Amino acid sequence: MSNASREFSELEKDALQEIMNIGFGRAAADLAEIINLHVILSVPYIAVLQPKEVIRYVHEEIPDTTDMSMITQFFSGKFNGGSFLVFPHGEGRKLLKIFDSEMALLNESYDIDILEKETLVEIGNIIIGACVGKIAEMLGDVVTYAPPRFFSQEQIHGTLEDVLNSSDSFAILFKTVFSFEQYNVNGYLFMVSQYSIMPWIKQAIAEFLGPYE
Questions:
Q1: pTM (2 decimals)?
Q2: What one-character DSSP code corresponds to residue 181?
Q3: How far apart are the C-alpha atoms of 34 and 188, rounded to whole Å?
Q4: What is the C-alpha separation between 15 and 211, in angstroms, rounded?
Q5: Is the alpha carbon torsion for 115, 119, 125, 126 positive or negative?
Q6: CB-based contacts of 198, cutoff 8 Å, min separation 6
Q7: How far apart are CA 150 and CA 163, in angstroms?
Q8: What is the chain's pLDDT, residue by residue, as a tens digit (213 residues)?
């Protein structure tokens, strides 16, 4: 595969940006319905990264990497790969504040770390499912999902290295800010796939753009 066929043009990046904006809008609506709070998910930009750049990017963008959390979920279809939602230190506890009413009903002996993990998995499952599903739908595909998994700080690097340890892998990064009314929660969403699907993605984007040309 030539270098040109491994890269997105500016027009293709703009199209992906628009598709993701719509996908995140859907995720926001799903979250708002579940937690009964107004939600805004913004997508400042898209970056296509080489495998070796992903972990370096995480270190550069997240000041404190001593206590990150990550939710992973793999998906399959014509559009296939894995999604990785990384939450910096403290972001999980911010999300817990949104569920204060539910927490008040819990037994005091309930492990707060378990509650944080379950909250991150649920939020990650909704965000990843809504965004990936909408991308697939708009590109003319339907995907199925594996169950989401939670990884703690000590597991993150090894997991990313295992998934990215392929010369045929590339990652699409979406840095997003989650705004739940008075709460701001930062997250980094990666989608990792193989260059073998690039011809399909490019063709699907061309068909998406067709009516506007």
A1: 0.80
A2: T
A3: 22
A4: 13
A5: positive
A6: 1, 5, 6, 170
A7: 15
A8: 555 567 888 888 888 888 888 877 877 787 777 767 777 777 666 778 777 787 777 777 776 667 788 899 999 999 888 888 888 777 777 777 766 545 444 445 456 677 778 888 888 888 888 888 888 888 889 999 999 999 887 787 777 777 777 667 777 877 777 777 667 777 788 888 888 888 899 999 999 888 766
Instruction: Kindly state the tokens that stand for 68.
Output: 């990150």
Looking at the DSSP assignment, which residues form a beta bridge with residue 48? 172
Question: What domains appear along the chain, each with residue ranges and CATH number?
Answer: 4-212 (3.40.1550.10)
- Six-digit token string for 105: 């009903």
For residue 77, give the 3-state DSSP assignment.
Answer: coil
- In the block, tokens 């400042």 appear at 44
Counted residue by residue, the chain has a size of 213
Residue 103, phi then psi, degrees to nearest 5:
-65, -35
And the tokens for 64? 């404190």
Runs of H (alpha helix) within the chain: 10-35, 51-61, 91-98, 100-104, 112-138, 153-164, 198-209
- Closest C-alpha among 175, 4, 156, 142 to residue 75: 142
